[in-house]
Amino acid sequence: MGEAGQRRAWNRRWGLGAARRREMAATATSGAGRCRLSKVGAGRRPPPARVRVAVRLRPFVDGTAEASDPPCVRGMDSCSLEIANWRNHQETLKYQFDAFYGERSTQQDIYAGSVQPILRHLLEGQNASVLAYGPTGAGKTHTMLGSPEQPGVIPRALMDLLQLTREEGAEGRPWALSVTMSYLEIYQEKVLDLLDPASGDLVIREDCRGNILIPGLTQKPITSFADFERHFLPASRNRTVGATRLNQRSSRSHAVLLVKVDQRERLAPFRQREGKLYLIDLAGSEDNRRTGNKGLRLKESGAINTSLFVLGKVVDALNQGLPRVPYRDSKLTRLLQDSLGGSAHSILIANIAPERRFYLDTVSALNFAARSKEVINRPFTNESLQLHVLAPVKLSQKELLGPSEVKRARGPEEEELGSPEPIAAPASTSQKLSPLQKLSSMDPAMLERLLNLDRLLGSQGSQGAPLLSTPRRERMVLMKTVEEKDLEIELESLDASEPEARAEDCWELQISPELLAHGRQKILDLLNEGSARDLRSLQRIGPKKAQLIVGWRELHGPFSQVEDLELVEGITGKQMESFLKANILGLAAGQRCGPS
Ligand code: ADP
Ligand code: MG
To answer: Which residues have CB less than 5 Å away from ligand 2 (the ion)?
Structure first.
């Protein structure tokens, strides 16, 4: 097929006929939708932003008549929804988000309401990310990619961004703009370059200013939508066609499209800016153990998607303001370090399905989403002075990702929470409420799991209370307990040969060798020279243990290594390990460069 023929085929693939292209371009430039894409506020200190959370309920798709299988979840208004409470058929559980998109919402509703508003930040040198979350079959790929008839977030965002950068970077305008794309997949904790499938697992690095880079990742310059398609469509096919169990693979891998917008000022002071946009179709959030034939304890290497699991932990840590956020425990969270709780404007779109068989996954996706909206991002502008003034923008195909050499340090850390921008009300959610699915004839495996969950919640004294109507603090504790319980079950189901799932045990790998050595030395000095009072400043050392340590030192002389603590009578090996972990991680968190 010639290039023109190929172009036409791709346009058909996206449903991007001339009319739709005009419609999308018009949306980008006319301000249709809620937000006009423009380079407003460039140079101003950006207001703080938090992660927006939208929920999208897809319609019934498998041909089952809705009447015979009414939905177990429904929208109430443009921000809230309710789901049947399996414990009490008279009750529902209610959730509120930044936006709720009902089953009749269109791709344009989601794009204009939740995605388009954050794109302008790219031209301010800030990062943005869009993550589609939810169980397999709930509509993540439909939302992100879409179909020829209904293009999703990715083609719409690319169309708008390219149009905008063409306008803003035109001759005579103050900034020269260039756009590049990379496309990668995280599968079984390997980072794979979809634009160069022959390259192996890539490493993710962080510079000392907190910028995340992937050296060696292919980066293609794009100046038009046709350029984008030329790279993206074959790469998408790479993603799935190569795998024999393609469904399994695509539902367990995270597809990450990275679009970078570089700006160079044409006149003094020759500033330069870089904004990154991540568009991510996450792996299915369903519990794969349930899909097997051996029930809950299924030993199956893919039972836990490490990255998704850690994503939940990262969100928890950010919500609770913990000093250590476990970004390094998975590839996805490492990559998103500057997109969640970092410098980006993020939107998480939780996709859910109305069918009863999705019930448990829906509850779990909603709980995940309810936590995520507490995350606070701290936007800052990636701006610096150009080293090579007015050098033409030259991009090699394998230019390293990431910051320019002279990227300025992170902006002020201590911004206060701003009130979120209102999200446009999706028109389609005002429909009359339909009856909810009665969950009386539930499948026994699901019932057993729900009963376990219920027992756990009951033991916490919250029997009968819908999760989200409990006070926030209590809710966090409950959800954490449930997750910990879940983790216990998950870990039981793992072979010892799956070390990556036991990230907690590998805490020493999470910090640099220098910091580790420094932390050990600092603690050793304190053990050998500190008074009992000094020793109490250490984690896990109370007055009694402090006395024991001083006593041991007087009897035996200085400790030669921190592990000698185990020799002190009254301190077990396990206590020694937990002491080391708590103190070294604490020190490392306090000394990190960039945000913790
Ligand atoms: P996921 O990527 O989460 O596994 P998909 O996006 O593949 O789910 O969606 C599963 C099926 O449902 C597909 O056939 C898709 O076309 C259809 N679908 C998903 N969302 C919608 C929607 N909002 N409207 C119509 N069909 C949808
Ligand atoms: Mg999918």
So the answer is: 140-141
**Distance from C-alpha of 457 to C-alpha of 475, rounded to nearest angstrom:** 10
CB atoms within 10 A of CB 442: 16
Residue 428 near residue 56 (C-beta atoms within 8 A) = no
Q: Hey, which of 55, 58, 66, 147 would you mutate to test ligand 1's pocket, going by the most ligand atoms within 8 Å of its Cβ? A: 58
Which amino acid is located at 521 in the chain?
A: Q
Mutating to test ligand 1, I would choose from 142, 143, 144, 150 the residue with most ligand atoms within 8 A of its C-beta, which is 142
- For residue 139, report the distance from its CA to the centre of ligand 2, in Å: 7
Across 291-373, where does the E strand assignment appear?
Answer: 344-352
Of 21, 6, 380, 394, give the one whose Cα is nearest residue 180: 394
Distance from Cα 106 to the centre of ligand 1, integer Å: 12
C-alpha distances in angstroms, 169 versus 173, 260, 570?
6, 14, 69
Instruction: Spell out the residues 6+ positions from residue 61 whose beta carbon is closer than 8 angstroms to its own.
Output: none
For the chain, what is the largest distance between any 2 Cα atoms, rounded to a whole number of angstroms? Answer: 86
pLDDT digits (tens, 9 = 90+) for 482-527: 454 444 333 333 333 333 334 444 566 566 777 777 888 888 888 9
| Neighbour count for residue 189 (Cβ, 10 Å) | 15
Chain segment 100-138, per-residue pLDDT in tens: 999 999 999 999 999 999 998 899 888 888 999 999 899
Beta bridge partners of 205: 213
Q: Decide: 596 and 324 in contact? Cβ < 8 Å.
A: yes
Cis peptide leading into residue 323 (ω within 30°): no
Q: What lines the ligand 1 site, CB under 6 Å?
A: 58-59, 61, 134, 136-142, 284, 351
Calculate how far, in angstroms, residue 117's C-alpha sits from the geometric centre of ligand 2: 24
Question: What residue type is assigned to position 305 of the chain?
Answer: N
83 beta partners: 73, 93
Closest residue to atom 5 of ligand 1, CA basis: 139
Instruction: Kindly report whether the global pTM for this prediction surpasses the value 0.70.
Output: no
| Greater pLDDT, 99 or 487 | 99
Give the distance (Å) from ligand 1 centre to CA of residue 156. 17
Q: Which atom of ligand 1 is nearest to the CA of 103?
A: 23
Which residues fall within 8 angstroms of residue 314, CB to CB, at 6 or more apart?
325, 326, 327, 333, 336, 340, 341
Write the CB contacts of 338 (distance below 8 Å, at least 6 apart in sequence).
Answer: 127, 210, 211, 212, 276, 344
173, amino acid identity: R
Give, using CA atoms, the residue closest to atom 11 of ligand 1: 137
CA of 250 to the centre of ligand 2 (A): 6
So what's the pLDDT on residue 143? 97
Nearest atom of ligand 1 to the alpha carbon of 147? 16
The answer to whether the beta carbons of residues 226 and 219 sit under 8 Å apart is no
